[in-house]
Write a structure and sequence with these properties.
With about 375 residues, the protein is α+β, with helices and mostly antiparallel strands. Helix content is about 30%, strand content about 25%. Helix 7 (about 190-210) packs across helix 9 and helix 9 packs across helix 10 (about 305-315). The chain binds biotin (BTN).
């Protein structure tokens, strides 16, 4: 299916997009189980959307949609009505059927993202709020209540976004990408730092595939472009000794924003300023979720952690650089020489090597 990247403006329907869970999804949040790849993950509305988009601008008969999806005519009609309420323009051609005209103005419309992820076990559901305190807080709350793996929470604006090391993550007033995904990894708690490194590689891959931009990785999971921060990632975990209950990975990307208030004092840059055009935020969210799903399953496989660490080490721009490490209780300068087997950064100083699991690393220029 080719998801159209053009969105036509229909401001009158935007406010109806702003809602909570119940309007969009009939998902049993107590289910908690990991989706198997072949599970029927699309709800009726998203399935009908995919049929319409797949028709590539041709009119498709209601009967054909019914047969293809095993639905009644009334269910198809209801789904089309719901899609129109979400901001899709779908024309009814008498006797012939329905024709997809355009996507909603809101490029974070959750049904669009779900349709783009039709063959991916993650991203069902995608939940969208116009504004939230933090997607991270919301996703963790849902995970605690048993939300299934791959549930995505996204928003246009976070009033209390959170960053690493207890910092704030300040939202741009418009055009940013903020989302969190619930992960139920079959990994021991000590491998969670590696999950966080893998998240960074997944974002790097998605941005390269969609925008053609090759970003750098700064340990542990900042995404930089020409030294400026493009994306920050926060991974939080609920665990007990020997067992991870769930992890929530939250990703903030400067997408179309002209202001870039990262909130951690770093120089920042946005995707739109790098490529000279606006990006479709839903396409980026879907691309990251797809890459991350694949990467997490690989990470869980035999020797997955070792392979991920080798791949990360080959990509990490911090290695081989002079760095300043600011940690709880001090700071040191040295050369970043390796990433250890738990994802920690190993730094050589005049007094030998030290490793850090949780710290802020600044890349130094040779004269710093
Ligand atoms: C950092 O660089 O310090 C990590 C920033 C992580 C920000 C994202 S935005 C989506 C999610 N919700 C939050 O409150 N934080 C993460």
């Amino acid at each position: 299916m080719s998801i159209p990247s053009k969105c036509h403006h229909r401001p009158e329907v935007l406010s109806s997009i702003v809602t909570g869970i119940s309007l969009y999804h009939h998902v049993n949040l107590n289910e908690g189980a990991r989706l198997k790849p072949m599970d029927p993950v699309l709800n009726t509305k998203v399935s009908v959307l995919k049929e319409l988009i797949d028709a590539g601008g041709q009119t498709v008969s209601g009967g054909a949609i019914c047969r293809s999806l095993g639905l009644s005519r009334q269910s198809v009609w209801k789904a089309v009505k719901a899609l129109r309420e979400d901001g899709y323009a779908i024309s009814s051609v008498p006797v012939k059927g329905y024709r997809f005209v355009s996507s909603p103005a809101n490029d974070l419309e959750p049904s669009w993202i779900e349709a783009a992820l039709f063959d991916c076990p993650w991203g069902h559901p995608v939940l969208y709020w116009k504004s939230l305190d933090s997607t991270q807080t919301q996703a963790k709350d849902l995970a605690r209540k048993g939300a299934r793996e791959g549930l995505v929470v996204t928003t246009d604006y976070q009033a209390s976004g959170r960053g690493r090391l207890g910092r704030k993550w300040v939202s741009a007033s418009e055009g940013g990408i903020y989302f969190s995904v619930v992960i139920r990894p079959a990994l021991p708690p000590e491998s969670i730092q590696v999950l966080s490194l893998v998240s960074a590689m997944s974002v790097q891959d998605a941005i390269l595939n969609i925008c053609g931009v090759k970003c750098q990785l700064k340990w542990p999971n900042d995404i930089l472009w020409d030294g400026a921060k493009l994306c920050g990632i926060l991974t939080e975990v609920s665990s007990e000794p020997g067992l991870v209950h769930f992890a929530v990975t939250g990703i903030g990307i400067n997408a179309n924003s002209s202001e870039m208030p990262l909130g951690d004092g770093a120089e920042a840059i946005s995707l739109s300023s790098i490529i000279g055009r606006r990006v479709h935020r839903g396409e980026i969210v879907a691309g990251v979720i797809r890459a991350l799903n694949r990467a997490v399953r690989e990470l869980e496989s035999d020797k997955g952690v070792g392979k991920a660490l080798a791949e990360y080490s080959s990509r990490c721009d911090t290695l081989g650089r002079k760095v300043r490490v600011v940690f709880d209780g001090g700071e040191i300068n040295g050369e970043a020489v390796a990433v250890g087997e738990k994802g920690e950064i190993i730094v050589r100083t005049g007094n030998g090597t030290r490793s850090f699991t949780s710290a802020d690393v600044k890349h130094l220029r040779s004269f710093d």
